[in-house]
C-alpha cells in the first residue's frame, strides 16, 4: 500500500448562524450602524421638508396679507370718496378715477328707477318704442300704448304670482313627501 505524502487542503465549511459569536457581533454592529445612519438621514430629510413647507406657508401668508392690505386700502379710499360731501376733500387720485363713464351713468339711472319704471321701460323696449317716440305720438296712440303697457304689466304680475304659488306648493309638496319618507 502506498501512502501519498501530499496533504489535501481542507477548506473549512461555513459555520451556521450562532456558531461564531465574533461574526454575529460584527454583523450586529454593522446593522446597528446602518440603522443609526438611516435614522439620521430620515431625520435630516424630515427637517428639510418641514423647513421647506414652513417657508412656502410663510410666503403664501405674506402674499395673502399684502393682497388683503391692498383691498383694505382700496376700500378705505372708496369709502372716503363716497362719504365726502365736498369734492375738494377727496384725494386727487380718487377724483381722477371718479369720473362717470357712460356705463356708470346708465347703471345709476337704472338703479334710481322703481321696479315699475324698469318694467315699463322693458315693455317699451320690447315694443320697439323709446320714451321720445312715445312723447311724439298723438294722445290717442299714447293712450293705446299706455293701455298695452298696463295689460302687459298685469300679465307679468299674474305670471309672477303663479310662479310664487307653484314654488310654494312644490315646497309644501316636497315637505309632505319628506315627512312621509321620514315616517317610514
Which terms would index this structure?
184 residues, mainly alpha, 2 domains, 6 helices, 0% strand
Topology:
Layout lengths: L20 H63 L8 H6 L4 H11 L2 H13 L3 H6 L2 H45 L1
Give a quick summary of the entry.
This protein is 78% helix and 0% strand. The chain is an all-alpha fold and 184 residues long. The chain folds into two domains: 31-99, no CATH class; 113-183.
Q: Can you describe this structure?
A:
- Residues 1-29, 154-184 are annotated as: Disordered.
- Residues 154-168 have a biased composition (Basic and acidic residues).
- Residues 1-10 have a biased composition (Polar residues).
- The chain has helices at residues 21-83, 92-97, 102-112, 115-127, 131-136, 139-183.
- Helix content is 78%, strand content 0%.
- The chain is built from 6 helices and no strands.
- It is mainly alpha-helical.
**Quaternary status:** single chain
Helix content class: over 70%
Instruction: Report strand %.
Output: under 5%
Gross morphology is: elongated
* Total domains: 2
Number of helices: 6
Largest sheet: none
Give the termini separation.
107 Å
**Spatial extent as radius of gyration:** 45 Å
The mean pLDDT is: 75
Order of helices and strands: HHHHHH
The total beta strand count reads 0
Structural class: mainly alpha
Amino acid at each position: 500500500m502506498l501512502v501519498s505524502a501530499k496533504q489535501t487542503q481542507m477548506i473549512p465549511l461555513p459555520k451556521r448562524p450562532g456558531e461564531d459569536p465574533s461574526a454575529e457581533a460584527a454583523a450586529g454592529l454593522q446593522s446597528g450602524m446602518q440603522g443609526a445612519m438611516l435614522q439620521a438621514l430620515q431625520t435630516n430629510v424630515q427637517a428639510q421638508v418641514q423647513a421647506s413647507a414652513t417657508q412656502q406657508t410663510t410666503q403664501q401668508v405674506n402674499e395673502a396679507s399684502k393682497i388683503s392690505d391692498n383691498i383694505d386700502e382700496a376700500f378705505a379710499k372708496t369709502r372716503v370718496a363716497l362719504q365726502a360731501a365736498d369734492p375738494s376733500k377727496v384725494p386727487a387720485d380718487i377724483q381722477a378715477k371718479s369720473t362717470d363713464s357712460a356705463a356708470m351713468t346708465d347703471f345709476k339711472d337704472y338703479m334710481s328707477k322703481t321696479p315699475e319704471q324698469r318694467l315699463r321701460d322693458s315693455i317699451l323696449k320690447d315694443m320697439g318704442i323709446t320714451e321720445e317716440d312715445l312723447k311724439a305720438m298723438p294722445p290717442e296712440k299714447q293712450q293705446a300704448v299706455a293701455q298695452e303697457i298696463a295689460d302687459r304689466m298685469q300679465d307679468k304680475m299674474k305670471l309672477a304670482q303663479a310662479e310664487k304659488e307653484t314654488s310654494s306648493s312644490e315646497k309644501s309638496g316636497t315637505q309632505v313627501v319628506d315627512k312621509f319618507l321620514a315616517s317610514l
